[in-house]
Amino acid sequence: PTEYVSTPIHESGKIVGAVVIFKDITERQLIERMRDEFIAVVSHELRTPLTSIRAALGLLAQEKIDLQPEKRQRMVEIAFSNTNRLVRLVNDILDVERIKLGKVTLDKKPCNLANIMAQAADEMRAMADNHGIQLLVDPLTTQIWADPDRIIQTLTNLLSNAIKFSPNGSTVEMRAQQVDSKSVSRVAQGLNVTGTDALQAGIDASGSVILLQVTDRGQGIPENKLETVFARFEQLDASDNGHKGGTGLGLAICRSIAQEHDGEIWAQSQVGCGSTFFLTLPEYAEAGPEDGS
Ligand code: ADP
């Protein structure tokens, strides 16, 4: 509508000039907003792997703690794999055009879900240790049709939130199961989640479905916020930002990654008892849904 604000233009060239300036301001504001969002995205995306690297190096640097050689080696591996992840992320994030368009290019291929879950858990283990959280993983050996880096990114985001919003000494669990469309639909309806129609549509299109769950025993999310937490920049308690870190972008990114995989993501929670985040992904079927061969 901004282009039509100038309806009362007559013949005057001066007024036409004013229209151009108005458009310039609008574009500048748009660019400024995009730049702000871009900075927010960059800071969030860099924070998670950096936190893992810092935690791993922090443990290695403490001479007083006598780390066993295997644990020491594990910390080095965590720092190394997260550094690689950072390099990949920086490359991705610097592709401003894709960010501007809100599009992420996926490199989908058949991949082993158990490996993906193990990698995501490994990346978060140092953070869990630091928070006194026990991280339990029940992996499922199956093939999914996905971009492994993006699924690891989604799972580490969910795990990082679960750890962040849970008390010391509690557990965070990640598990996966193969389900048929009917049972997922029943699960979804039983849990009274939103977006069941979209979920059903995704499942019907892809056949077998993998249901991943990340469960914590943390502070929980009020029912009327279960959907809004997936919106960009949305945080239940903005004061969390200071001491817990985060920008409110993580779940929005998780949701677009899930959608790009024809999957769904939603949450169920009981305030004071904990939350479960659910993610559905298509199981890899022979030629792959996008293979076309
Ligand atoms: P960030 O964690 O960077 O703030 P997210 O988009 O990942 O952003 O999460 C948005 C908000 O949802 C969080 O700030 C928090 O208020 C809430 N939230 C997310 N995960 C959990 C969880 N497991 N338990 C409680 N609250 C959560």
TrEMBL record:
**Record carries keyword Phosphoprotein:** yes
The Histidine kinase domain, residue ranges: 41-285
| Alphabetically ordered keywords of this record | ATP-binding, Coiled coil, Kinase, Membrane, Nucleotide-binding, Phosphoprotein, Transferase, Transmembrane, Transmembrane helix, Two-component regulatory system
* Keyword hit for Coiled coil: yes
Signal sequence span is none
Q: Where in the cell is it found?
A: Membrane
GO process terms (BP): detection of visible light; osmosensory signaling via phosphorelay pathway; regulation of DNA-templated transcription
Q: Which domain of life is it from?
A: Bacteria
Q: One GO cellular component from the entry?
A: membrane
What are the PAC domain coordinates in residue numbering?
A: 1-37
Q: Please state which protein family the record places this protein in.
A: In the N-terminal section; belongs to the phytochrome family.
Under which name does UniProt file this protein? histidine kinase
Organism of provenance:
Vasconcelosia minhoensis LEGE 07310
